[in-house]
Amino acid sequence: MTSRSTSPTTRSGTSRGRQETYPGMPPETCQDHRSRIAIGIDIGGTTFTVCAVERDGVRITDTTGPTPATDDPDDMVAGLAAAAAHLVTAVAQTHAAPVDGIGIGVPGTVSADGGTVVDCPNLTVLNGLAVPALMSERFGVPAFINNDAYCAALGELRYGAGRGHPNVLVVTLGTGVGGGVAIDNRVLRGPRGILGEIGHIIIDPDGPPCSCGANGCLEALVGKDAIIRRACEGLRQNPQSRLAEAPDAITPRLIAELAAQGDEYCRQIVDWIGECVGLALADAIVLCDPDVVLIGGGIAGAGEMLLEAIRHSVGRHSRISGFDPSNVIACGLGAGAGAVGAAALVFECDGAPA
Fold first, then answer.
1. pLDDT digits (tens, 9 = 90+) for 37-65
2. Based on the number of CB atoms within 10 Å of its own CB, is 326 exposed (0-12), middle (13-18) or buried (19 or more)?
3. 3-class secondary structure per residue, 25-68
């Protein structure tokens, strides 16, 4: 890649004697030791996923667990490192090739030099933390970090539903709402690392406050907590919904599952989510001009129901773009897109794209 702002972040220290590489170096300077297997860690506000990935995108093994509920940075890193260590051991037992690096995706922004997490609104314990260096020290391999939506976009572009499409917009619907943009087969982040942050497009200026400090952002409307809050507020008028059987157990995933099973109230919530996402996409599409828009994350479990709602909204609100709403499709890697893309950070920084 050609600059710090549009590339995977820099390599943290390593004890393995491999050549130091930085964004902007030509591929021929860093192809002597091409990585074969990488560990990818996707840290979400609620759950994390760790996977071991071969250079061609094949997932060797993976694991998912709850993100450590702690305010102690050391405990957070220790919990993630333990999960990664389990996969490193598994790879050593089944493959002759060693793990050559670790990639990490975080739900926030990282410093321009890739050394620290700058701002993680939904996981503030990571703020200011030098995650790559800490992981590199523990495992003795280079470590890289970037925004989780960047990683999801990279994973989909290289190995998922974005393959064959040089211009891709990825939207992740989870604890927060993230976005990643690929132009001409490169995932971009911009000079401040915010390119593609569709979750902070304002849908309703008079809407609820967002963690970023603004009001009515897409994330403030269809992030995990916002969806749960909206579902709970409407139960009094919709007592027939199966959500009323366990109001304390409501999650976006449960809403998606019940909607698919025919729960009318849950279907209304999914339709409303689709309307909001489509409104934001109408703006993003005229700015990014993507070939396809890929939708992933927990609520994406609603499948075609959610996709149809988004397509309908895009069709109504994006009149001049010429974008075909049928090109709003599901992420091909599912919930693993972020972790696979995080692993791809290692391959991208090791020379030519995977």
1. 999 999 988 889 999 999 988 888 888 99
2. exposed
3. CCHHHHCCCCCCEEEEEEECCCEEEEEEEECCCCEEEEEEEECC
| DSSP symbols for 85-128 | HHHHHHHHHH-SSPP-EEEEEESSEE-TTSSSEEE-TT-GGGTT
Torsion of CA 260, 263, 268, 272, to 10 degrees: -40
Q: In angstroms, how far is the first alpha carbon of the chain from the final one?
A: 13
CATH number 3.30.420.40 given to 4-157+336-348 = yes
CA distances from 158 to 32, 128, 215, 230 (A): 22, 30, 35, 36
Q: Which fold has domain 164-332?
A: Nucleotidyltransferase; domain 5 (3.30.420)
Alpha-carbon distance of 272 to 309, in angstroms, equals 8
Nearest Cα to Cα of residue 77 among 37, 132, 122, 119: 132
User: How many Å apart are CA 95 and CA 168, to the nearest integer?
Assistant: 33
> What are the angstrom distances between the C-alpha of 50 and each of 103, 104, 265, 348?
10, 9, 35, 18
Domain residues of the chain, as ranges? 4-157+336-348, 164-332
Q: Sorting pLDDT into bands at 50, 70 and 90, what band is 75?
A: very high
DSSP label at 209? B
What type of residue sits at position 227?
I
Single-letter residue type at 100 = D
CA distance 141 to 132: 10
- Per-residue confidence (pLDDT) for residue 350, from 0 to 100: 57
DSSP letter (8 states) at residue 206: T
Q: Note the pLDDT tens digit of each residue in 304-344.
A: 999 999 999 999 999 887 899 999 999 999 888 999 999 99
| pTM across the whole model | 0.83
Compute CA 82 distance to the chain's CA centroid, rounded to the nearest angstrom: 21
261-278 confidence digits (pLDDT tens) = 999 999 999 999 999 999
Q: Output phi, psi for 55, to 5 deg.
A: -60, -25
Please say whether the beta carbons of 212 and 121 come within 8 A: yes
